[in-house]
Amino acid sequence: MRVAGKGHTDAAETVHFTFDGQSYAGRKGETLAAALLANGVKLVGRSFKYHRPRGIVTAGSEEPNALVTVGTGGGQDPNVRATTLEIYDGLEVRSQNAWPSLKYDMMSVNDLAAPFLSAGFYYKTFMWPKAFWESLYEPVIRKAAGLGALSGDINDDIYEKAFAHCDLLIIGAGPAGLMAALTAGRAGVDVILADEDSQMGGRLLAETFTVDGQDGADWAADAVSELAAMDNVRLMTRTTITGAYDQGTYGAIEQVGHHVARADAPDLPRECFWRIVAKRAVLCAGALERPIAFPNNDRPGIMMASAVRSYLNRWGVAPGKAVTIFANNDDAHRTAVDLIAAGVKVAGVIDVRADVQAMGDYPLYTSGAVTATKGRLALESITITHAVGTREIRTDCLAMSGGWNPTVHLTCHMNGRPTWDETLLSFVPTDGSIPGLTVAGAAAGHMSTLGALQSGAKGAAAAVADLGVTAKVDVPTAEDDPYRIEACWQVDGKGRKWLDFQNDVHVKDIKLAAQENFRSVEHMKRYTTQGMATDQGKSSNVAALAVLADATGRGIPETGTTTFRPPYVPVSIAAMGAGSQGHGFAPKRLTTSHHASTGRSAPMIEAGLWYRPSYFPAPGEKTWLESCNREVGYVRDAVGVCDVSTLGKIDIQGPDAAAFLDFVYANTFSTLRENRVRYGLMLREDGHVMDDGTTARLGADHYVMTTTTAAAGQVMTHLEWVAQALRPDLDVRFASVTEQWAQFAVAGPRSRALLNTVLDDPITGEDWPFMSCGAVSIGGIEGRLFRISFSGEHAYEIAVPSRYGASLFRLLVAQAEAMEGGAYGMEALNVLRIEKGFITHAEIHGRVTAFDIGMDRMVSRKKDCIGFAASRREGLLDGQRERLVGLRSVNGTDKITAGAHLFVEGADAVSDNDQGYITSVCWSPTLDSHIGLGFVKDGPSRLGEHVVAVDHVRGVTVTCEVCSPVFFDPDGGRVRG
Amino acid sequence: MAKLIETTPCAGLLPLSIGGVNIHEINLGQVTLVAPYAGGAKATSDALKAAIGVTFPKPNRTNGAGPRAIWCGLDQALIVGGACPDLPQAAVVDHSDAWAVVRIEGAEAEAVLARLVPADLRASVFKRGHTVRTMLVHMNVGITRVGASAFEVMAMRSMAGTLVHDLEQAAKGVAARALI
């Protein structure tokens, strides 16, 4: 019901939205809760467990009941608080947790069964048979419980993450926050003022206070204008600080686009997850009003007294026609005063205190309590007891107030515990809980407007003084009424007295927890689910632990609180993972030949972050294997070209470069001649193989190391570690040049002929023997040539600066094709190396030693190297270890699989009989057989023996012959040819 | 004789103009990584000063306006925009083709980078000529402020596509905010 002349949204345009399919009109920018109340809608949801009808309880982010689902499909947002959702034209909202409809919910049968569904019911009831829990009980319970749900569809909405930095972060823009921002802003420091509301001002927007003789809301608007004009102040509305972390870092969630129709702003992020780094912070988060647990205090129409004032004063909406108020403090009486001033009937104020005076012309019932309520889908009447009797009062809105809880949450995020204040009957923050953060305003227990303004100004001045800046404290005049309150947590009477409206926990549940010896507040929470779910017990926790304290005969401070953890309000996973879908998941590293490869329809495979071509399909080829076999043939019979730029290339220079390499490699590099290349094996400190690759000596003090593609980063880190921590005595510098050079393998009997078509000066076998390297020129461009081979064929790798990579690749492939060869991909590369028994990280997977791969002789005995000592351990040189061998399918045609384990023929395929495993497999077109590499116990002594490869995962069993890992050209004649 | 054609790292990806920012590719010309050997810092800096007029930069700083020296790591700097002289007391590595370099400028450039980069790039803290090695989403980058509202971002050449993608997404989000 709109109240003429009240609220700040008179001038807003009228918009239309739907709730459960029914269309309503509202004012643009007001909350859904305000718009629903304006339209007389009181029933907005069903409770979590008992499916009880529920209405709007609060006017802020602490709302436990009025949760709705917005939108449909992938972008569907569940559990959106109606009290913070701003309406816009075309908004579609649905209620949750009700079927078939909100008014007639089948699952409300749970409420009738309530006597059997008390806290702990599940734990006691669904215990046996044990197997039924996962298969039956849990799915049924999960289906019955719960609030809103995601659609399960892919969400195409845009979310965002961002970083911000400031001198002073002010959390909350009520009177304390605004005053803090004015104080610090005027002093010139870099300020961020964040507030979760769409408009700054906090309670000043919802009350009828004056500040400096001016309407409080107007004063707030003026303050915001002044702040907005300051270059050093950043105002962040709709931004909730969600967590306090180490070193002045705060998490925050900004609702960027939820108040705008998607069609109006397609690129607009829905939310932004901020990480704000602040030198100092002032917490001005205010306080949250708490309910009183009286019988059936959960009917739609029963809400917080402060919320009634918010709807009336800020949004111009009266939540009822005949309002009653139940309170234990002075503050709530202002609700009656404001309502009467607005022309709304106040049917009575029930105050638990004996000596209290009415603040206006309304019936006041002292020493009072609400003992019963009526009305199934909306409140109709209440029954009260008071100093001189009992009576029933007709009322459609009961405003309750059990006092205020300072919003201490953030101060507890680094394991701080709040302190109980006997005067306020609340927990207040403990000083120093978060380094660099001070607390001001109601959050610190300063309950009057003047107290908030003063503490905000002083808090900010102290914070900037810490930074060496002097700020002037200049506070306007405002009310400074004392905060008078008397303890009242629960009211006796027939019916359930609800504490946690969201999780359906009532007083009896807490008492049951205590009775069953779940007396610790943390145990009580788990037993009853008190304070769980989206509101995290913002309004219910303190009352619940007061009840627990009473039930266990302890005081509230001794009982303590549960732990407040981030986030303060729910943060969607989409916001935390923003930008990580699709291309954002990981960087793509593309070679210079990428577009040429995709232009030839080559499917890409990922190697680390790199994308490499699997194979280059030719017309008429139906399977990858056909393409692969053809490409293997290029290299064995003619010439193939392959982009190998992805291998790590590390430039190593310095007077001690040679000594350094001798230390990091198992074999020796100081003896390598200039313009020569050597294969190197690198060990970890534990004596196992870390990586392998070739290293070329370009000059006396200049080497270029290559690493495997996937281990490039690891090797670079390792070298840094060795140079900085282990051998700072060696003068050596290194730099990654992986990106600088585009490098291509040219492999096959016609490789030299091909190169001589592109090189400015032809090369000869005499000048360029196997494992030589040096400078070459291609079209006047300086390049590098290495005569190395990963295929066992006469082969080279040619490198040019990356800007020429795309061009050189096209040129080399064109020339190869003219010589009955062509480009080859990773599949063919893999076949070629398996045929030659060359290892990759499939073999050097981290658990093998140089001894295991038959390279122990490479570990030099003439010098020390990383891993040398460990590699000499007896157990690592035991012949019975699983050692590298080749494996050939006995009949040639049976496919063997990588990952299969090996067993002696006739033995059971169980782990006790394990003889080893297969690491790499391929179909070898050269040998016309399925072959593989693997590790077999004492393998080199068992050549010729048959073993059975059993792949339990794929269900494959194949008999293999153990053979030398070098299947092809064991003498190496071809590579030198 | 074979003829090789040059391709730039961001070929086909830039320029972009989105909302309050323009993003285009920068060709730094000759880029040389210089890492002085032990005890060679002063001699290297002096040799650079004599040859191209810039000294070896302190951490997180750049020197020079024509040829520039950009700090890029522990005892390392990139000499860009000119030939690097002989530096006998330093390791010298050609990096002319190793980097994708883009310039992002405009009123919203700082806001766009704030979506991607954890480092504090506020003008009061990160002034013209300041440089930082940091993360841009998942990528290692170097960022230098080259104007009141202009930054140079250097990423690995192979990641040019991802660099442009990330900048574009962030710029779109920032631009969309300006419209509501």
Automatic annotation (TrEMBL), chain A:
Uppermost EC category: transferase
Source taxon at top rank: Bacteria
Domain Aminomethyltransferase C-terminal: 883-969
Pfam families, per database record: FAD_oxidored (PF12831), Fer2_4 (PF13510), GCV_T (PF01571), GCV_T_C (PF08669), SO_alpha_A3 (PF17806)
Biological process terms in GO annotation: methylation; tetrahydrofolate metabolic process
Span of domain GCVT N-terminal: 595-863
Signal sequence annotation: none
All residue ranges annotated as the SoxA A3 domain in the record: 494-579
Keywords, in A-Z order: Methyltransferase, Oxidoreductase, Transferase
An example molecular function term from Gene Ontology annotations: methyltransferase activity
Entry keyword annotation includes Methyltransferase: yes
Assigned EC number: 2.1.2.10
UniProt-listed PANTHER family: AMINOMETHYLTRANSFERASE, AMINOMETHYLTRANSFERASE, MITOCHONDRIAL
Annotated family: Belongs to the GcvT family.
Protein name: Aminomethyltransferase
TrEMBL record, chain B:
Superkingdom assignment: Bacteria
InterPro entries per the UniProt record, alphabetical: TrmE/GcvT-like
Protein name: Sarcosine oxidase, gamma subunit family
